Amino acid sequence: MSPAVPTWSAAPTPTFSIPGTWHRTKPCRKLIPVALSQRGGILSASGPRIVDVVIAGGGPAGCAAALTLCRHTDLSVMLVEQTGYGEDKVGETLSPAVLPLLDYLGVGEHFRQGNFAPSHAFTAAWGDEHVSTRDFLFTGRGHGWHLDRARFDAGLANAARSFGTQLVLGKRLKQVQKQDDGWRVDLSDDVQVQCRYLIDASGRSAWLGRAVGARTVQDDRLVGISAYFSSSDLPVESSSLVEAIPAGWWYSAPLPDGRMVAVLMTDADLLQASNADRSAFWNEAMAQAPNTRERLGLRTVSGDLQVWPAHSQQLEPSCGNGWVAAGDAAAAFDPLSSMGIGYALTTGIHAARLAASSITQKQDDSEQRQAYADDVRRHVNEYQNLKRSYYSVETRYRDQPFWARRQTATAA
């Protein structure tokens, strides 16, 4: 009998205990198309700029923080994203449970009209060779979506700008310095910004948090090796697939533009220790995944293989006096959990609320910071329990290094 397919992506969105309810929202101005090739944003080296909040990172966490602040407060917000949203990013499947968050941010309808491909189920060959399916219908929330992540992120940034966020593309944060009245932030090209509060949404790098003294605690060495497969006349799969193999596991899913993405998840040291080059390692792993190989069919790989970090980690502490981390910068999870986007949006919202409270109340916010940090730790602990439980289901490869590490973690 096949094991149950993953249920994490249907799990409730994490909740935070920061008190307070906001009722006032601002209307959205007409959405302005984001120029994906835009470089340099809106700033030049003509002198320091002054804003209330600087957000580092324009992914879902940073955009959620910007949208929350601009829709519910009169604080000025600058969102700094070092890319131009033009790079390919590994596609993801968005759970229908995330829609209420998008509605709260005022972008739900824009998302529904975004022409993303529907996902009606997710499938897994996990624990044995048989494929099991879990239909989103049984979650009671409708279908999910296969995302073009670059377009999804650009849409969120576009919405944030339409609500009043200063969107800065193509610049990097180089240095932050604490001042009596806030922070001085140095960007690339000699741009200087002064602000009262910092939100770190810089992803697993947690650049801001580490710059102000926090440290990242890494739990494993997971990496993803991804490739895009050209569109074809073959029938298009409507579900994502997870398939376990000796060296890790595969994820594959269709993209809205007709292509497919396949990602091999393994440990970085296993890839480095292999005598084969990256392509040979990939091909050997593909030969061990009959279900993944079958759904890709005769499609050809477009572009080079890309390796990206996917390890679990936590930032300690996740917030401090005048700053807070959100999304992967606060806590990053194994992609198997499907927690990434939902957690990014949730923490972005609550990081914004913490920032606004700290600025507007002008009093000690240590109790609220402690509540935020406690909630991040609680979510990490809950995630670790789920992670151990699910990896323990796959016992066929327990003698292989990738699985032995996770079986040992389970036993511990």
Automatic annotation (TrEMBL):
<feature type="domain" description="FAD-binding">
    <location>
        <begin position="51"/>
        <end position="359"/>
    </location>
</feature>
<dbReference type="GO" id="GO:0003824">
    <property type="term" value="F:catalytic activity"/>
</dbReference>
<dbReference type="InterPro" id="IPR002938">
    <property type="entry name" value="FAD-bd"/>
</dbReference>
<dbReference type="GO" id="GO:0071949">
    <property type="term" value="F:FAD binding"/>
</dbReference>
<dbReference type="Pfam" id="PF01494">
    <property type="entry name" value="FAD_binding_3"/>
</dbReference>
<protein>
    <submittedName>
        <fullName>FAD-dependent oxidoreductase</fullName>
    </submittedName>
</protein>
<dbReference type="InterPro" id="IPR050816">
    <property type="entry name" value="Flavin-dep_Halogenase_NPB"/>
</dbReference>
<dbReference type="InterPro" id="IPR036188">
    <property type="entry name" value="FAD/NAD-bd_sf"/>
</dbReference>
